[in-house]
Amino acid sequence: MLETLKGLGRHSLVYGLGALASKLLAFVLLPVYTRYLTPDDYGVVALLTTTGAVAALVAELGLGSALFWSVIYRGEDERRAAGSALVLLVGQGVLLFGGLAIVAGPLAGLIFGTAAGYAGLLRLVFLTGLLGLVDIVFLALLRIRERAGTYAAAAIGRFALGALLNVLFIVVLRRGVEGLVVAGLLTAAIAAGVELVVLARAVGLAFDRQLVRRMLGFGAPLMPANVAGVALTSADRYFLQAFDSAAAVGIYAIGYSIGMAMNLAVQAVQLAWPAQMFAIAKRDDAERQLGRLLTHFLVVFGFAWLVLSVYAREIVVVMTTPRYYEAAAVVPLVTLAYVFYGVRMITNTGLMTRNRTSAVTPLVLAATALNLALNVLLIPRFGILGAASATALSYGALMALSLAANQAVWRIDYEPGRLARIVAVCAALYLASLAVPASTLWLSFALKTGLLATYPLLLAATGFFTPAERELIGRAAGGALRRIRRGG
Question: Which residue of 68, 156, 243, 244 is most buried, as measured by CB atoms within 10 A?
């Protein structure tokens, strides 16, 4: 178990750095965005980005996951699998994104109420999505080969380029929303050019029709679920636009960007998880390993939820301007939604390893239908809090449905008593943090830090740790003390 955790943790850390580097622009540049973009502008950016993300997931055809299944679990030839996937993705991507570019005018009218000024931006977003298809194969190949360092380096380079271009177009050239879209397009174009050169040398452009059919048989059933998953997290923007305003979308998107730090942490594990999951699934003690992994996952990510939720106000005040302060209210709910998502990911072993991916779609569609209904019910009455509540409740329902379906296929003995202790401690600490006075920023930060420091102590007080874990913690603490003394 310890070696499994070390392997998952090591790769998650490196992939996490890569994910943070490539996708945290929205968070790192919040001080820039909130000073140079109005809430209405930021709302428009959020709607454009969401529309591009939905199109990109349709274009992916589930081949990202299928590559792992094909190469790692089935032992297919890596070069032929990756090359075939690349040819298929780019070919059908040209058709899909080309068609979307043709209907960009009516689509912009549907989203924004007018095509004027928005149809051209949508076309640029769709071109960015087409170039991003190369990313799917390139990054999947690095993860299959466990080239975590190269993955992180590529993502960090892309982050640096994106940050430079964003600052250039927003701060220097003052191009606003258009500048953000153009910066994203240029970043994607440069990255795709480099990746195509590398892929052409590493795997070539061979196309194996039978291999593609097998990968599509695994990945295509995931596509509706993936698209519904984006709707699950992003439909609220469209409802906020319809029921409220673009400014409400912008304020909500700021809070969501902060909550997305949890998603990026979960995503770091998700990037490392397929290779680890399929390897663990072939072990004799797979059920015990997988059951214990969920407990350790929730210990870490329960604390991450606490940190983001307890410090939400302080983060928003430091990172943004007063017109965005309302965004802090949605952070705990958005963050909780992604904890639910992470639990679903860790427990989705039965359907994935037994090639029951077709069962994923009905579960996600059910949760998406619930999300749409909750958005209609809650957003007109509660605004951005209603949107965040709909997201959290829908992800909770998806987690429960997915767990039941996976247990029916492959029963894993999880640890409900220990999981309940984690939930109880997290809830108690969060409720206690609400009593901390908010008059002085740094005083509230210090008081909340002291409160968060009690997390492991409270877990220990509930009898959470096993004797083996207590012994391991004792050895680690003793070793740390000895190193400190030697260093002194």
Answer: 68
Beta strand ranges found along 115-189 (DSSP E): none
Dist. CA 89–CA 66, nearest whole Å: 13
Q: Which residues contact 421 (CB under 8 A, 6 or more apart)?
A: 459, 462, 463, 464
Give per-residue pLDDT as tens, 428-453: 999 999 999 877 888 899 999 999 99
Q: 187 is written with which tokens?
A: 């970043």
Q: Which of 170, 171, 199 is nearest to 89 (CA)?
A: 199
Please tell me the total number of residues recorded for the chain in this structure: 488
**Max CA-CA distance within the chain?**
70
Q: Which two tokens stand for residue 88?
A: 């298929």
380 Cβ contact list (under 8 Å, min separation 6):
243, 386
Predicted TM-score (pTM) of the model is 0.77
Please report, as a single letter, which amino acid is at residue 80. Answer: R
Rounded CA separation 471/309 (Å): 31
DSSP 173: S
Question: What's the pLDDT at 266?
Answer: 80
3-state SS, residue 119: helix
79 has a pLDDT exceeding 90: no
Helix (H) or strand (E) holding 217: helix 209-219
Alpha helices in 39-118 (DSSP H): 39-60, 63-68, 78-102, 104-112
CA nearest to 257, candidates 32, 447, 27: 27
Region class of 169: left (phi > 0), else alpha (psi between -120 and 50), else beta = alpha
* pLDDT (mean) for 101-115: 89
pLDDT score of 480: 63
Q: How far apart are CA 474 and CA 211, in angstroms?
A: 51
Cα 15 from Cα 23, distance rounded (Å): 12
Closest CA to 252 of 318, 327, 335, 147: 327
100 vs 105: CA distance, rounded Å: 9
Q: Which residue has the tokens 């913690």?
A: 473
Phi, psi at 142, each rounded to 5° = -65, -40
CB of 296 closer than 8 Å to CB of 345 = no
C-alpha 309/C-alpha 319 separation (Å) is 15
Spatial separation of the C-alpha atoms in residues 363 and 398, rounded to whole Å: 7
Using one digit for the tens of pLDDT, what is the confidence trace for 323-368? 999 999 999 999 999 999 999 988 888 887 777 777 778 888 899 9
CA-nearest of 208, 263, 227, 249 to 77 is: 208
- H-type helices in 383-434, by residue range? 384-409, 416-433
Distance between CA atoms of residues 143 and 222, nearest Å: 20
